[in-house]
């Protein structure tokens, strides 16, 4: 029984899989945060452009 327990304690394959899972989760969180920030900035930019185009259109009517 002690040999099985000792072999189980030396096995690190599960720990490696968990580490890769944590790294993938952190990368996903970083990508989502970056996309959210970029999306907000693009929305503000296009809203400003739309406002200026509408104002220009009203000038030439």
Largest sheet: none
pLDDT averaged residue by residue: 87
Q: Strand-and-helix sequence, N→C?
A: HH
Which outline best applies?
rod-shaped
Approximately what portion of the residues adopt beta-strand conformation?
under 5%
| Beta strands, count | 0
Radius of gyration: 27 Å
Count of helical segments? 2
Structural class: mainly alpha
Query: In terms of per-residue confidence, which ranges show pLDDT below 50 for 5 or more consecutive residues?
Result: none
Keywords: Membrane, Transmembrane, Transmembrane helix
Protein name: Pilus assembly protein Flp/PilA
InterPro entries: Flp_Fap
Transmembrane segments: 20-42
Task: Describe the model.
With 61 residues, this protein is an all-alpha fold. It is 92% helix and 0% strand. The radius of gyration is 27 Å and the shape is rod-shaped.
Q: Would you spell out the secondary-structure blueprint of this structure?
A:
Elements: H1 2-10, H2 13-59
Transmembrane segments: 20-42
InterPro entries: Flp_Fap
Keywords: Membrane, Transmembrane, Transmembrane helix
């Amino acid at each position: 029984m002690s040999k099985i327990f000792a072999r189980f304690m030396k096995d690190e394959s599960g720990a490696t899989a968990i580490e890769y899972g944590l790294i993938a989760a952190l990368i996903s969180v970083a990508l989502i945060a970056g996309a959210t920030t970029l999306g907000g900035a693009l929305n503000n930019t296009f809203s400003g452009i739309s406002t200026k185009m509408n104002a220009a259109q009203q000038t030439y009517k």
